[in-house]
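ARCHIVE CARD
SHELF: 3
SLOT: left
DATA:
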Amino acid sequence: MINLAYFVPEKLKKNTSRGKIQESADCKVSKVEIGQYWRECFSRLCTNSFGDGFRTLRELELESIEKTIRYYKADLDPVDVSQMLFDYWVKPDIFPDAKEFYENINIPVCILSNIDRQDIVQAIEYHETSDVFGAQRLGIKAVWLNRKHKKRKKDIFPDMEIKNLVDLCKRL
């Protein structure tokens, strides 16, 4: 089984959020330094976000951007800067060869994500597919992990429905 990240990172690199902070900062700072500072803040927040202290990645992203803007004394609205990143993540580019690869691969493929469900759903809708239908359209068997016993949409037919990941292990 392989896990592939097939979203193009170049578009994110072109994102102007760091550039906006750089332009508005009260000191001379590079985009690389801004990126490093933000990444460290974001990583610390993620490390401490579990159990009772759990927060979504979107919340952590916003807080880390607020801290970065404050640190560089930039005159920006953190919500606007966060939205720039969010706009990318819900409309990601896909490598041109990814679709053909998934159509022709002869080994099991597993796509996992640790991003917030809302982000994934919007990205899937942007590419006019569903997580189940999209997988099946590419020849991938789709398993619906239905922990909360939700009713399935009438037009979605997963190959398998499970209540927890242990169920999947038993059925593979």
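SLOT: right
DATA:
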Amino acid sequence: MNGLKVSWEPGSDRRIMKYYLKMMSLSLMFTAPLAGALSAQTLTDQTNQTYQVVREAERLAQNPNEALDVFFNSGYTYWDARVMANFWGQSVTDAKSGIGMKLMGGPLSKALLSINLTEAREKAIRNADSLDLYSVSGFSYDDAAEIAEFWGDATPYDGKIRIEKNLVLGNADALRSFLRVNGQ
């Protein structure tokens, strides 16, 4: 045990305990300054991020439509905003603005947006039987019946659920293309 002989003599437990306490003290003495530096760096990073968020909020207050412009030029779709609106408990317009703000917030904010969208989609897929997106999608009963028949689903309702899930995943254009091609 690191050069220390262990014996069962009276008092040997005390020597072992002293040895380990000395080693712990030495290790704390060497690592405590490092932990302090790491904590200071973390605090500095958090302060810088907070400052950036405040600056961005001030800038957006001067031009509230900028976040919407960023959303519309981002490649995110109405369906992404609709899924996020349901997830965040907001209107679709507020979700579009929220997506735009997160896109303007830098790499960390963009990464969090991507994670949020994945979580929102997972939740929406679990609740696909609500047909929330299908009901406003413009897809018809006949579309649902055609999709159900193609995929071997039992009923048009199953086709509606399939449409709902594809809308959640952002596949509205693919569905429309399928219906155009399959309907010929």
